[in-house]
Specification:
The chain is an all-alpha fold. It has 15 helices and no strands.
Length: about 450
């Protein structure tokens, strides 16, 4: 990345990255670990339709909730810059406005749950047995929508305020609760997919309650006041809306990509979509681990931009780049050594184990390919240069992913995985070019007392 030669990492920059990154890496990993637990609970039932139902209905809620991922990302970038400026009033305003928006959107999702779920399941095109279980799962999961979206805001706010240990505590505690409840409901009470859904909803509201409690404590350390009037008038939301509209489009494109991937896998058969569901847990581990550095980058360069501190800005990027690459290498080696063992731990169905092992090499290569896309997202979020995220995502999905899938349909599931890997390559290349261009032209808005 541009900036390596002039802003070499020092001990302080390594320490700053790690103070924020390691709690986020651990907390992020708890999210796919929950997915692994859900997969393991369903994967050891004798019939594959339960595992397939979790995969099909799960992607619906992943798509719905990630559509509103801007509630976390936009909050982090804006709050980090307000934190750097020591503007406590703006800090509080972004929190209150984002929570209000999240609660309203969550309520609307719940109100529209029946047609939303029916249309989504019809579009997925899975077998009838799978659809029946998926519908039961989805109708229960919809009750958690307000809690999930408000949790997005709280996590973004904590990270923007340079506090990643609270998210670690929140996500670890609530995901452990979720795992325990899932096991209790499925094996203790004899429930199936609906038991996993119920355990998830209870845990989502437990997380919200804990997050609000921690939020109250942290607010005592932040100056300023809540601008109540800023919640009443639409024009006061302009800054949030300007950032979030680009993030919304970007996220819709990303989620279309993954929903399309799952849908096409479902059309290849129940065993294939179940095997892909197992392998997507590997992808979740990759993304959530590497996102630890992205989250640290968001917070630190947002703060540096708020302070107009050019040296801290580029030191953060070079340090995060080094650690991201090293971590990607370690993840790839880990999957190479343990991949088949992980698959066997996730499902006891021989056919699914066999199919998943065939496509495992794609996941072994993916960390080294996708690492830069995650880091670049952190840079763009921290600087709120989110239009660049939208534009590069548009190129990657519409100009790379879909054409490659179309051209490789004869390859079956291998063609599907090739299209997904190419999508990550395109994100890294286009995002890297934007970073280079913005640095050369100083589009970041930093003091121009040093030049490249």
């Amino acid at each position: 990345m541009l900036g390596f030669s002039q802003y070499r990492p020092d001990r302080a920059s390594h320490r700053r990255i790690w103070q924020l990154a390691w709690p986020m890496m651990l907390s992020n990993i708890t999210v796919p670990l929950l997915g692994l637990a859900d997969t393991a609970v369903m994967g050891h039932l004798p019939e594959p339709q339960y595992l397939a139902a979790i995969a099909v209905a799960g992607v619906i809620f992943t798509s719905i909730y990630w559509t509103f991922g801007f509630l976390r990302m936009g909050t982090t970038g804006l709050v980090a810059q307000a934190h750097g400026r020591e503007d406590g009033t703006a800090n509080r305003r972004f929190l209150a406005q984002s929570l209000l928006i999240a609660a309203i959107i969550g309520l609307l999702i719940w109100l529209a749950r029946t047609p939303l779920i029916e249309v989504s399941l019809t579009w997925m095109g899975a077998d009838q047995l799978v659809l029946e279980q998926a519908y039961q799962y989805a109708m229960i999961r919809a009750w958690g929508a307000p809690a999930v979206l408000c949790n997005f805001v709280l996590l973004g706010w904590f990270v923007g305020n340079q506090n990643t240990r609270i998210p670690l505590l929140l996500l670890t505690a609530t995901n452990l609760l979720n795992i325990l409840l899932n096991v209790l409901f499925v094996y203790g009470f004899g429930m199936k997919a609906e038991g996993v859904a119920l355990g998830t909803v209870i845990s989502e509201y437990a997380s919200l309650a804990m997050g609000i409690w921690f939020c109250r404590g942290l607010l005592k350390e932040i100056s300023g006041r809540f601008p109540t009037r800023a919640l009443l008038y639409w024009h006061d939301y302009a800054e949030l809306i300007n950032v979030n509209r680009y993030l919304l489009v970007r996220t819709l494109l990303l989620l279309f990509c993954f929903a399309f991937f799952t849908s096409q896998g479902a059309r290849l058969g129940t065993d294939v979509v179940a095997a892909n569901a197992v392998l997507l847990n590997f992808l979740m581990l990759i993304s959530h681990a590497l996102d630890g550095y992205a989250h640290a980058t968001e917070a630190l360069i947002g703060k540096a931009l708020g302070q107009k501190n050019r040296s801290s800005f580029y030191q953060t990027i070079t340090t995060a780049s080094l650690w991201s690459l090293l971590s990607a290498l370690l993840i790839a080696v880990f999957f190479l050594i343990t991949g088949d063992w992980i698959i066997k731990g996730l499902t006891s169905i021989p056919e699914i184990r066999s199919i998943a092992s065939i496509y495992l090499p794609w996941l072994i290569a993916l960390p080294l390919i996708a690492v830069w896309s995650y880091l670049l997202d952190g840079i763009f979020i921290g600087t709120t240069q989110v239009k660049a995220m939208q534009d590069t995502m548009m190129i990657s999905v519409l100009g790379v992913f879909l054409p490659i899938w179309w051209l490789t349909q004869s390859m079956g599931n291998h063609g599907l995985w090739l299209a997904l890997v190419s999508f990550f390559i395109a994100r890294s290349i286009t995002g890297g070019w934007v970073y280079w261009h913005f640095t050369k032209t100083n589009r970041w808005g930093l003091p121009a007392n040093q030049s490249f």
